[in-house]
Fold:
Amino acid sequence: MHFELAEEHRMLKDLAQKFVRDQLMPLEQKVLAREAEGKGVGLTAEERAPIDEVSKSLGLWGLDAPEDVGGSDLPQVAMIGVNEAIGSTVVAYTLPPDSPNLRMMMATVNERQREAYLAPYVRGETISAIGISEPGAGADPAGMTTTAVRDGEDWVINGRKIWTSRAAEADFTIVMAVTDKEKRRGVSAFLVDGDNPGFKVLRRIPMIGGAFTYEVALEDCRVPGWKLLGVEGQGFAPMQVRLGTRRLEMAAWCIGLAQRALDMMCEYAPQRVTFGEPLSRRQAVQWWAADAATKIHAARLMTYDCAWKLDEGRDVRQEISMVKVYATEMAWEVIDNAMQCFGAMGMTKEMPLQLMASLVRNLRLYDGPSEVHRMVVARNLMGGTR
Ligand SMILES: Cc1cc2nc3c(=O)[nH]c(=O)nc-3n(C[C@H](O)[C@H](O)[C@H](O)COP(=O)(O)OP(=O)(O)OC[C@H]3O[C@@H](n4cnc5c(N)ncnc54)[C@H](O)[C@@H]3O)c2cc1C
Structure:
């Protein structure tokens, strides 16, 4: 057993770090100012275009996508370092294509869907969203009530989705809907185009962390039969593939964010003198740093272990829940201590710490709140009803 990252994966991590340092970090002050005005953290098309050009030329697109549609087919282990780097800044940037829906599609698409949806997605020509959560069902998606009913060759979807990220910008949304009411998880996935007249974006909801989500109504939303993604009534398993991919990404982002907060604290604490001593000589501050370094190390090992097991095709449901809870709560604590260390400066919107904290606060909630992931782990240990 050894813990050395393969040479090519280490080089990729270095490349991603350099990309973040040279391309994203210079935009951070602009993004902070924009978020302070309530305009969110998203990049404008003008800001994004040159960055896209660089990331593409560096070969950072389609890293974990299949080779036959233009990707590099890299394992999950290779993606951890990349996501650590991408997560270390508050400049919101996704290397195309966003991995979670990619993985879900890789597990489900037929030949026609591969050509029409997967291939353009991998080429970075389209963006996507996913609609799982509903006003009455979030942490427990099995309670969703949106239905899809067959009508001749088509499916007709009716219901309401909420908190859907990117719903208004996406070329297509993977909409989860009940197709078998008799089964608790008789849910199927559908590829719904953004311009489908039955797909109605009702409102944009400002979230903390400069994010926006959307509420969407599906009103007699007619979808051709071939846009059923995967097996009818068995949409839960590929949806879990998707959620698992995001949760692992989140863990890597949290490691990047926590490391950034620790680095900031280590640079600042020796300079700031109170009561005749630098903060770095105070045990309280030393322990913040020591505990942060220890927990970042633990989170990194857990995340790589989980990624490796996923690449080996093992069942990692428990590990994914553990990693998601541990990394998000770890980053929350580390960033909070760093904010405390910086005093009033840590509370300003001119510094990234408060935005980093808000980003992590969201991560503790979406793709499963911590309590639900603890429930999954406890159920594995002690058994349970479902
Ligand atoms: C920024 C952001 C982006 C999002 N993007 C998307 C998206 O793109 N697509 C999408 O479908 N959804 C998205 N969501 C929704 C998100 O996945 C849900 O909000 C989340 O799953 C929780 O569902 P809920 O809000 O309905 O909370 P509820 O289900 O009402 O739960 C509320 C709280 O109850 C507690 N709780 C629930 N169940 C248990 C339990 N079994 N044991 C103990 N405590 C429990 C937890 O503390 C939980 O936070 C997003 C959310 C946010 C904040």
In short: The mean pLDDT is 96. Residues 18 and 85 are 9 Å apart (CA to CA).
